[in-house]
């Protein structure tokens, strides 16, 4: 059969096939067994960390294919999977708790292909293996915490306006029941609540007022809880160095996390399931930092290091805990510098 197409069409077909074959090449190179090193608690890997990793591998007579520091984390490519576990254990021992060390598979795509945007297709769990987590957000606990915060706020507002109440207690469906001495006080309180808490549905029965979060407010609270957990999980997955993670909401209160290629499932479970604690502590300005660095620390204080490695003496007793934080937003101050604005509950604000 003769080819009756014009020359330019034949050339176009050849060109498209050539481009497709070029960008399909990364799938032929496979993966390198690797070890991913990332900083924890906001810390980043440094050139000194890279040198320490290389020295550790050299002492084990392991010659890696490459060890690269990029975006605050280190990726060590090894020759075989048999080297992975021993290398991971020794590196973890050398770096301590300030770094997360995980087993991984890194695409072996040549640099020249990566430079033109070539990358292997996403194979997912079916083809690459890995681990899948299904997590459920404890909505009842989150909403109960908001209920406690609301009750503290109401007590403070009523005392400030000199509105005498007899009891503030929890009701069904995260409602708050407030009982006043008389109907007149209850009416004044209702007017105050409508101004300060417009998202509450209010039911008045003589001197008893029932405050229930509206359906929209409950939906927004649930969405906020999910979004906060999604953000936290994404940051934790970054520490594992997974190239093709899937983190998405499923249903009303569940989150699916898929980590293709992850071999250290125990480490992934430990990292994703860890409970974070936020504390605010005052700096002990009376303590001598130089003496503290030598081990002479006041009994009510302890020595810690900043993100930059600078020593600082902090009070042992926290002045504020994370349970008092209602919301936090990032932004910039009047000088254009980054800042974080935190909104506290009534108890902490006092």
From TrEMBL:
Gene Ontology annotations of biological process type: protein transport
UniProt domain Protein translocase subunit SecDF P1: residue ranges: 226-284
Limits of the SecDF P1 head subdomain domain: 305-350
InterPro entries xrefs: SecD-TM, SecD/SecF_arch_bac, SecD_1st, SecDF_P1_head
Domain SecD export protein N-terminal TM: 2-103
GO cellular component: plasma membrane
A Pfam family assignment: SecD_1st
Keywords: Cell membrane, Membrane, Protein transport, Translocation, Transmembrane, Transmembrane helix, Transport
Protein name, UniProt field: Preprotein translocase subunit SecD
Organism annotation: Mannheimia haemolytica (Pasteurella haemolytica)
């Amino acid at each position: 059969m003769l080819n009756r197409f014009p020359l330019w069409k034949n050339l176009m077909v050849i060109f498209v096939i050539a481009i497709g074959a070029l960008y399909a090449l990364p799938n032929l190179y496979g993966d390198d067994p690797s070890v991913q090193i990332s900083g924890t608690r906001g810390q980043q890997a440094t050139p000194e960390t890279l040198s320490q990793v290389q020295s550790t591998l050299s002492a084990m007579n392991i010659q890696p294919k490459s060890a690269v520091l990029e975006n605050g984390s280190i990726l060590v490519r090894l020759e075989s999977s048999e080297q992975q576990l021993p290398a991971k254990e020794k590196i973890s021992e050398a770096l301590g708790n300030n770094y997360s060390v995980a087993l991984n598979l890194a695409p072996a795509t040549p640099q020249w292909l990566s430079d033109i945007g070539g990358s292997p297709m996403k194979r997912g769990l079916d083809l690459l293996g890995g681990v899948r987590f299904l997590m459920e957000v404890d909505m009842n606990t989150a909403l109960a915490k908001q209920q406690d915060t609301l009750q503290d706020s109401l007590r403070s507002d009523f005392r400030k306006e000199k509105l005498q109440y007899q009891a503030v207690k929890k009701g069904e469906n995260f409602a708050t029941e407030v009982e006043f001495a008389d109907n007149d006080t209850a009416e004044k309180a209702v007017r105050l609540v409508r101004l300060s808490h417009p998202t509450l549905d209010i039911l008045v029965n003589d001197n008893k007022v029932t405050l229930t979060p509206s359906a929209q407010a409950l939906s927004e609270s649930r969405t906020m809880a999910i979004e906060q957990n999604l953000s936290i999980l994404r940051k934790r997955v970054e520490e594992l160095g997974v190239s093709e993670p899937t983190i998405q909401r499923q249903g009303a209160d569940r989150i699916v996390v898929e980590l293709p290629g992850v071999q250290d499932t125990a480490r992934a479970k430990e990292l994703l399931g860890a409970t974070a604690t936020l504390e605010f502590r005052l700096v002990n300005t009376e303590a001598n930092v130089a003496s503290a660095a030598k081990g002479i620390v006041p009994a009510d204080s302890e020595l810690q290091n900043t993100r930059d490695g600078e020593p600082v003496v902090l009070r042992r007793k926290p002045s504020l805990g994370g349970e008092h934080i209602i919301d936090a937003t990032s932004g910039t101050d009047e000088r254009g510098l980054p800042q974080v604005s935190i909104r506290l509950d009534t108890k902490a604000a006092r």
